[in-house]
Amino acid sequence: MMSITTGMLLAAGRGERMRPLTDTCPKPLLEISGRSMLDRALDQMEAAGLTRIVVNACYRAGQVEQALATRNGPCLFSRESEALETGGGICNALPLLGDKPFFVMNGDGVLENTDPSPFARLAAAWNSARMDALLLVLPVAKAHFFGSPGNFRLLPDGRLVHGTQEQPADMAYIGLQILHPRLFHGIAPHAFPLRELYAKAAGAGRLFGLTHTGTWLHVGTPKAYAEAPALMEHLGIP
Fold this sequence. Notes:
The chain is an alpha/beta fold. It contains six helices and 13 strands. It is about 25% helix and about 25% strand. The strands form four sheets. A seven-stranded mixed β-sheet has the order 5-4-1-6-11-8-12, with helices on both faces.
């Protein structure tokens, strides 16, 4: 049984790069091969053994809340009256997440299940004494539809650092991580990106990464959304 059983699914963004698909529907509710990205992510989280899952929403939050009402899983709803971005959304939900390390998953991708699962591998690698954040990463060349430079470099000891001109970032963060709530200590809920806390953790040598052993698709543009079903079929992802 996994030692970390609480998680959060980020589902509050408007999905500007996905317009016009997101003009009337939140990005996580877009369906790929007959299932919404929200349901795909929640199914994975529940299958991994998470018994407390917080889902945040802001843009068309009522639609997300209605979708959650159709499920029987262990979901709690965190409504945001204004967009708080990734960092602010998690900070706002901390009272529901508790005081122990928790998973955070993005609601705009397709993460291939592996054996053991990405959740189990992250939980096994987690070390609260050394880490404030542990991110699942993949070489940029293997991250389907990522479409941008890498986020980090992965050092031999497992730490993540930002790239430099001499040593560019070549690893992509692929939307699943473990965070310790102490990373948010002293921060009042407000709109800010999680990358600000990554920089803080990296500067303290407490930002770590684990390389995913499967496939990941970043479904962040209409082109990626259109091409994802055929690629998933080719890769054998249900």
